């Protein structure tokens, strides 16, 4: 590629954003920023402090006083919350099922977006989330909106959790994904929507390699 690009990848849960974004960043030598991990880290902290997740004021203050870093360590992308490695913990189902409630708080979003823009300012970045192409990096060189049927997305998340040895139920996971998508799509600030200038890629019938190839082709064209 002739220049360092800023690549924004958005879409609902289980569309393949983080898997694909990470591979693309590696192939291009770019930094990868998982914005969902930041909202997850903050949610983990709020849960561990037993916060009332309806208390927006308190969550806003928490966001401003929390140190969240995304650190690359060899192959791994570590999530560091107030100096502690929480990479694994933030994937717990308890966090997944509460993160959308924390992420809809305007003050929380304001603080996360500030950190995200700061992380992206050097260019050569792949950032994934829900509002990257619309709000965080509206001038991104490439905006991709990944989708897949909700059945397929639930199946992927299910397979992932089964692999980790968790005792999960497919219908329940599907219901949780639908619920989370609804909160993300209907919140007042920065809802999950496709940017007007995004390229939509339906991954329902594509494997990871095919999705990566499609996005790399888009990068070549730009
Ligand atoms: O990986 P998965 O799709 O399950 O979710 P994630 O990307 O880790 O994001 C978790 C949650 O964080 C989402 O459901 C949103 O509620 C929130 N999020 C957000 O509001 N804005 C972003 N840019 C990224 C995530
Ligand atoms: O970040 P997001 O929630 O959009 O999805 P992900 O965490 O990257 O992907 C969820 C799961 O689906 C992972 O286990 C991926 O390996 C898998 N996946 C897949 O099987 N086929 C794809 N085309 C994309 C993802």
From TrEMBL:
| Enzymatic reactions | CMP + ATP = CDP + ADP; dCMP + ATP = dCDP + ADP
| Residues involved in ATP binding | 11-19
Has keyword Ion transport? no
| Transferase keyword on record | yes
A Gene Ontology biological process annotation? nucleobase-containing small molecule interconversion
What Pfam families does the annotation carry?
A: Cytidylate_kin
EC number(s) per entry? 2.7.4.25
Superkingdom is: Bacteria
Enzyme class, spelled out: transferase
InterPro entries found in the cross-reference section = Cytidylate_kin, Cytidylate_kinase_dom, P-loop_NTPase
A GO term, aspect molecular function? CMP kinase activity
Q: Where is the Cytidylate kinase domain?
A: 7-220
The compartments listed are: Cytoplasm
Q: Which GO terms describe its cellular component?
A: cytosol
Report the NCBIfam families cross-referenced here.
cmk (TIGR00017)
Q: Which family does it belong to?
A: Belongs to the cytidylate kinase family. Type 1 subfamily.
Can you say what this protein is called?
A: Cytidylate kinase
Source species = Orenia metallireducens
